[in-house]
């Protein structure tokens, strides 16, 4: 089976950047395949002889929790489990009389977090091969941490920046499904991200989506059907946002066995996924705005989306301004529109801002607007 959709270009690029010592931040909306890609990059790196340690930090909100996760991952990494862990513990004991028994994770609770992290990275840096710290959903963690204690979050971010600049053998690969630049601005820590390599992750192209479709069939995740004339093009255009998640869930609902799915049958699958039974597939889009923006911004963004949903072709800036009323200055509107493009709700098409996915637009009309 061809593997066009296996992100081979992205993987090669990431591995080569990382091995050259550059730390990387990959921001893209959820369910586009960041975690999948990170897992593959981890394997690719390990094949080159690098040490790769992956932690998932969504849901964490303190530095202590973050360090404990990192320690657990180090203690689980086969090649680090014994000698390295003993070596770090030895070093930590020299720094603090407070550490007696237990492993790394326990020691993390007994030392100043900054000193702990610095010591850990210094020791990893002494290794002969590169160590890559892969931190999945870093942006969500930073946001939750900043909500609790913005100063401490800022300090951690600046410390990590110092670490990635100063420890050539330890490289960071971070992902996030919310705009870390926006959080940086909100909590006054945008400077901490300067110098990191920003790599976007795009949804699949039509060819990649086609290939992914074949993989889903080979794995029997979706039914055995082909696309009748024009049906695949219709699917691609109407979905508008070719994330593996949405492709899979719509195609699961195509009701054709051993035949060719027509445009009408694809349309029927779209209809089904918009029904109350399946609307949960879109709930994250709905919640995202409430969860990740301050209440005033979230309110304005919802109004903007409500206006955008009225026409498939969207609206021009002046229309949004007029409809939002005098309370919203132009700069703010543009910031919101940009954030909505960034998070893949909207695209700018010439002078018009419209929903990127026809399907999401229909969901919005049906359930949100
Ligand atoms: N390139 C790919 N090939 C095959 N399946 C993929 C690919 N990328 C993502 N997936 C699948 O799509 C779903 C969403 O991907 P995930 O990595 O969890 O997204 P994210 O981390 O961006 O939210 C998962 O089930 C994942 O296995
Ligand atoms: Mg993920």
Automatic annotation (TrEMBL):
Pfam family, any one: AAA_22
InterPro entries found in the cross-reference section: AAA_22, P-loop_NTPase
Coiled-coil positions: none
Cross-referenced Gene3D superfamilies: P-loop containing nucleotide triphosphate hydrolases
Entry keywords, A to Z: ATP-binding, Nucleotide-binding
Domain (ORC1/DEAH AAA+ ATPase) ranges: 24-183
Molecular-function GO terms, alphabetical: ATP binding; ATP hydrolysis activity
Protein name: ATP-binding protein
Native organism: Methylocystis hirsuta
